[in-house]
Amino acid sequence: MDTHIVEIFHNPCFWAAFWSWIIAQGTKMLCALCKTRKLDFKYLVSTGGMPSAHSALASGMAISVGLTAGFDQPVTIVAFVVAMITMFDASTVRRAAGQQAGILNDIIEELFKEHRLSEVKLKELLGHTRLEVLMGCIVGILTAMLVISRTTI
After folding, report:
1. Backbone dihedral region of 133: left (phi > 0), alpha (psi from -120 to 50 degrees) or beta?
2. Could you tell me which residues come within 8 angstroms of residue 139 by beta carbon, excluding any fewer than 6 positions away?
3. For 80-124, how does the pLDDT look when each residue is reduced to its tens digit (9 = 90+)?
4. Could you give the CA distance from residue 153 to residue 142 in angstroms, rounded to a whole number?
5. Could you tell me if residue 78 is inside a domain?
6. Does some domain include residue 35?
7. What is the per-residue pLDDT across 36-77, written as a single tens digit (0 to 9) for each?
8. Whole-angstrom distance, CA of residue 136 vs CA of residue 31
9. 3-class secondary structure per residue, 9-38
10. Cis omega (within 30 of 0) for bond into 12
11. Quick check: pTM over 0.90?
12. Could you give the number of structural domains in the chain?
């Protein structure tokens, strides 16, 4: 058994997850470019927004594992459970944390008007709407299907 870490780069499941994430993050950057007319590379590593890159990566990984190992295999079930947890977390826990950050930023802004406080704001764009998660999931599924179909030709 070869235990070299570079072997991961020969695995189509890695590439399906990787390209799903890249496509989702690139889509965010293009959407921001259309909206602001400014190219902002921060969107390549940002959280939140349309589509969910976490959901794209997780669903791309799960579908690619299913397509290569078989949808009836335990490893596929594990991949799907991880994907479901990731998508649930993105649309609930992280979204709620972002909303709380927005409220705290408002409170800090009000206090700053009358007191000397730090102007540092909390990051508000953390989670996703269900639509953003769904679109990320679709990106992941389609990317995985494309990557796996190209590696089996």
Report:
1. alpha
2. 20, 23, 24, 27, 51, 55, 56, 59, 60
3. 999 999 888 887 776 677 667 777 777 777 766 766 656 665 555
4. 17
5. yes
6. yes
7. 888 878 777 777 778 888 899 999 999 999 999 999 999 999
8. 14
9. HHCHHHHHHHHHHHHHHHHHHHHHHHHHCC
10. no
11. no
12. 1
Kindly give, in sequence order, each residue whose CB lies less than 8 Å from that of residue 149, ignoring residues fewer than 6 positions away.
none
Residue 7 falls within a domain, yes or no?
no
Any domain includes 63: yes
Q: Cα 102–103–106 angle (5° rounding)?
A: 90
Token pair 């390549």 in the structure block, residue: 44
How far is the C-alpha of 40 from the C-alpha of 31, rounded, in Å?
Answer: 10
CA distance 14 to 69: 13
Structure tokens at 65: 């594992």
The structure tokens listed for 142 are 């389609």
Q: Which tokens in the block code for residue 118?
A: 């730090």
23-26: long-range contacts at Cβ-Cβ below 8 A with a sequence spacing of 24 or more? 23/56, 23/139, 23/143, 24/51, 24/52, 24/53, 24/55, 24/56, 24/57, 24/136, 24/139, 24/140, 25/53
